[in-house]
Amino acid sequence: MTIISAKKEGGYMPKTLTVANWKMNGNRKLWKELAREVTAGMSEINTKVVLATPAAAFADVSSFLSEHSKVSLGAQDIHQQSSGAHTGDISAEMVKDFGGKYTLVGHSERRLEHHEKGFLLNDKVKQAIKEGLVPIFCFGESLGQKENGRTLSVLEEQVNEALEGVVLKTGEELVLAYEPVWAISSSAGSLGREPSEGELSEVFEFIYKLLLERFGESVASNVKLLYGGSVKADNVAKIISNRYIAGVLVGGASLKADSFLAIARGVASKPNEV
Ligand code: 13P
Question: What's the rounded mean pLDDT across residues 39-55?
Fold first, then answer.
């Protein structure tokens, strides 16, 4: 891979972001407790966070977030179309109606359990941007793909498919989250270990280079790149020290306010403006 020039490396410094993915966990009592404690705790922490909650939690969670500039609501998925006969799905407009600003797209659990990939995820990314939601596009290789030495080619294919035809004005309309399936603590086929610093550097330099080639530096340098997979309070400092990592996507550790806030505090220690 071509080494990125020092000038271009220096250009990557987007604002930091910490995303909670609650997955299919909790109940109204837990959701309200988490939303209350996270919003209170964030008053002392200089970064932004997103709570990607089950759709059933939107009403409860959003009641804590109105006027809160540091904590946003996000969905875990949206349909690629605006409305219609799509039983069980939710639209970007519904997310926005509750004040939501973000949506995950292409999480590995949706790829695995709902067979989402390729064109469909590209359509979801475009739909989110068209409707004014920021897609947090998730990508990552499986253990088998890693063991076969296919990590970079798999990531390149996933990212290129998702971004085909995507037009960005500033780069702030898009977030990419690298989540190697083998590192996600709860996923099937997971080793539940975080990547080494060398593994992170190789992947994130590669992804940033793909963005540079596709969008040019002024846009690429505003696209937030997140890491997700077994992020905890005690490993966030190491992860966030990578120059291309602007934040993290947190599963299990986001279900307790104190551990999630400790992670957000770790992300906030990165010397980027919020
Ligand atoms: P864990 O933090 O539980 O490993 O989950 C990561 C993830 O899938 C977040 O989207």
Answer: 96
In a domain, 269, yes or no: no
Label residue 8 by pLDDT band (50, 70, 90). very low
Residue 255 in any domain: the answer is no
Which tokens is 50 given? 């997103």
The protein residue whose alpha carbon is closest to atom 1 in ligand 1 is: 251
Q: How close is the Cα of 191 to the center of ligand 1, in Å?
A: 12
| Pocket (CB within 6 angstroms of ligand 1) | 21, 107, 179, 184-186, 228-231, 249-253
Query: Could you give the CA distance from residue 131 to residue 37 in angstroms, rounded to a whole number?
Result: 30
Crossing angle of helices 28-41 and 58-65, in 10° steps, is 20
pLDDT tens per residue, range 205-227: 999 999 999 999 999 999 999 99
In 168-207, where do the E strands start and end? 175-178
In a domain, 120, yes or no: yes
Q: Which of 25, 108, 186 to mutate to test the pocket of ligand 1 (most atoms within 8 A of CB)?
A: 186
Boundaries of domain holding 138: 17-31+47-62+72-250
